[in-house]
Amino acid sequence: MDVRIVKQGGLFVPGQLLHLDPTLVVCNISESFPTKMATLRHPKALLNIGKSLSVARVRHPISQNSAKRIMSTFVQTAAELVDEGLLGHVSTQPSLRLDPCNRGLFFREDYAAVLTICNVWDLVVYLRDHASLSGTRLLSGGGSGHEPLHSGFISPKMLTASVSGSLFASPSSSQVLAALRLLNAPTLIIIKNYTGDILAFTKAADQASQEGIQVKSVVVADDVNSGDGDAEGPGRRGCAGTVLVHKVAGAAANMGHSLDQVHELATTTSENLFTLGCAMRPANMPGSARPRTIPPDHVEIGIGIHGEPGQSTVPYRSLQDLVEVMISTIMQRASKIQQASFDTVVLIINNLGSVHPLELSRISNLVIHEIQEKWGIKVARVCQGTLVTCLDMYGFSITMMRVWDKGVLKYVDSSSEVTLFPGFVEPQTVAKKLSDSAEPKKTDIAIPKMLASALEELIANQSQLDAYDTIIGDGDCGTTIATGAQTILSDCTQYGYLWDTLVNAIKRSMGGTLGALISTLAENVSEIMMTDAVLDRKKMIELLKKGVEEVQRVGKAELGDRTMVDVLVPVIEALESYDFDLDKVLEVAQEANHKTAHIPLAKKGRASYISPDAVGKTPDPGATAVMLFVQGAVRAKIE
Question: pTM to 2 decimals?
Answer without folding.
Answer: 0.68
